[in-house]
Design a protein that fits this description.
This protein is α/β, with parallel strands linked by helices. The chain has helices at residues 8-17, 31-34, 58-68, 86-100, 112-124, 136-140, 142-152; strands at 2-6, 23-27, 47-51, 74-79, 103-108, 129-132, 156-157.
């Protein structure tokens, strides 16, 4: 058996590598849309797992951010372009934005320096708040994101309340 964590890229890579070894995955988006399983009720093939419904929560998180920052009209959206769910999360957010009366600008960040550059740009352009997309990389950079948000006084919503703990 091969187990993958909450990482769509790893799950897809393992699925592409074998059709015989059982795979157990954890993903934040629809595993049917990703092509990991045939259906939720009957996965078929050699893969099964857990869906954390991260993409389904995009509109809910946007609504929560608007409640926390009622005057926010221009939101920066931080997304890791290397994440296979980035495109679907962008679409979900862009679809939800008009209902909340907000404009979204996407900032790609797949490295530590790109996160810093995104903060500098969103502050310079005077965005009202920051919406951080669901991504394992961003989870590992939570302290950097929190420091940037505090330093620049940018209201920020992150995808999860859990903080990764270092091994050992």
């Amino acid at each position: 058996m091969i187990a993958t964590g909450a990482n769509s890229s790893a799950s897809l890579a393992v699925k592409a590598a074998t059709s015989t070894i059982p795979i157990v995955f954890g993903v934040g988006e629809d595993p049917v849309k990703l092509g990991l399983v045939a259906s939720l009720a009957r996965p078929g093939g050699n893969a099964t797992g857990i869906n954390f419904f991260a993409t389904e929560l995009t509109a809910k998180r946007l609504g929560l951010l608007r409640e926390m920052v009622p005057g926010a009209a221009r939101l920066a959206f931080l997304v890791n372009p290397a994440n296979v769910t980035a495109e679907s999360t962008v679409k979900d957010l862009e679809a939800a934005a008009p209902a909340f009366g907000v404009q979204i600008q996407i900032f790609d960040a797949g490295t530590i320096r790109e996160i810093d550059a995104a903060f500098a740009s969103l502050v310079r352009q005077r965005f009202d708040a920051l919406f951080v997309g669901p991504d394992l990389f961003f989870s590992t950079r939570r302290v950097q994101l929190a420091i940037g948000a505090a330093r620049h006084a940018v209201p920020t919503i992150l995808p999860s309340a859990s903080t990764p703990k270092p091994a050992g």
